[in-house]
Amino acid sequence: KNQVEQSPQSLIILEGKNCTLQCNYTVSPFSNLRWYKQDTGRGPVSLTIMTFSENTKSNGRYTATLDADTKQSSLHITASQLSDSASYICVVANRHQAGTALIFGKGTTLSVSS
Amino acid sequence: EPEVTQTPSHQVTQMGQEVILRCVPISNHLYFYWYRQILGQKVEFLVSFYNNEISEKSEIFDDQFSVERPDGSNFTLKIRSTKLEDSAMYFCASSVEGYGYTFGSGTRLTVV
């Protein structure tokens, strides 16, 4: 069964600190892996998209890694800011499909405090 | 930056009533989707729409649901007879080629 598991479920860090969120997936055939940021009551906003051949991708203070062999990904946030407080969702896409391709994890809720 | 626009942002309806959720996708996008997120749960796929027809749908998308692109710009989701368990955030998304999705801000549907 295609699944995306994320850890931790929630995380509290101090402003300025770094953190790493984890994602494990069992999706086949694999097309790409995405990290989204979702603020409360808002739609998901794309942070990174990585295909099978990409090991790492950065978007500002966000750096995602992908190990397609172990089917693991991480999202590293550097020098956290209060505005980083949100849910971070790992999403894996099946190959050659639209719509049903996106399999969502439950997300990690990040709280950044001052 | 182009956006996917959803209206209304919040809809309250009585059980058994019909609701229509509206979306304006990005103008040059060709693929359109509806997803939903029940409070505290993960986002779930409902349906994808391409070339004026449904291309895929999930088991959630039963006969109570329908989608339409009535005028070339709007994309609507209709729930014929709402149930309490239909209460959720409903997200519309669009993409050019089925790869780079853009999500709308969602419509919060509350069935009472």
Strand content of chain A: over 45%
Give start-end ranges of low-pLDDT stretches of chain A. Answer: none
Judged by helices, strands and strand pairing, the structural class of chain B is: mainly beta
Oligomer: heterodimer
In the predicted model, the low-confidence regions of chain B spanning at least 5 consecutive residues are none
Largest sheet of chain A: 6 strands, mixed
- Largest pleated sheet of chain B: 7 strands, mixed
The SSE order of chain B reads: EEEEEEEEEEE
Distance between the termini of chain A: 41 Å
Beta-strand content bin of chain B: over 45%
Layout of secondary structure:
The complex is a heterodimer of chains A (114) and B (112).
Chain A (H helix, E strand, L loop, with lengths): L2 E5 L2 E5 L4 E8 L3 E9 L6 E7 L4 E4 L2 E6 L4 E6 L8 E9 L7 E3 L3 E6 L1
Chain B lengths: L4 E3 L2 E4 L5 E6 L6 E7 L6 E7 L2 E5 L7 E4 L6 E5 L8 E8 L6 E2 L3 E5 L1
Parallel strand pairs in B: 2-11
Antiparallel strand pairs in B: 1-3, 3-8, 4-5, 4-9, 5-6, 7-8, 9-10, 9-11
Give an overview in words.
- The complex is a heterodimer of chains A (114) and B (112).
- By secondary structure, chain A is mostly beta strands.
- Chain A has no helices and 11 strands.
- Chain A has strands spanning 3-7, 10-14, 19-26, 30-38, 45-51, 56-59, 62-67, 72-77, 86-94, 102-104, 108-113.
- Chain A is globular.
- Chain A starts with a strand and ends with a strand.
- The model of chain A has no long low-confidence stretch (mean pLDDT 92).
- Helix content of chain B is 0%, strand content 50%.
- Chain B has strands at residues 5-7, 10-13, 19-24, 31-37, 44-50, 53-57, 65-68, 75-79, 88-95, 102-103, 107-111.
- In chain B, the strands form 2 sheets. In chain B, strands 2, 4, 5, 6, 9, 10 and 11 form a 7-stranded mixed β-sheet that branches. Chain B has a 4-stranded antiparallel β-sheet with strand order 1-3-8-7, with no helix packed on it.
- In chain B, strand 5 (44-50) and strand 6 (53-57) form a beta hairpin.
- The chains are: A mainly beta (114), B mainly beta (112).
- The A-B interface holds A 32, 41-46, 49, 89, 97-102, 104-107 and B 4, 31, 33, 35, 41-45, 47-48, 50, 55-58, 89, 91, 93, 95, 98-106, 108.
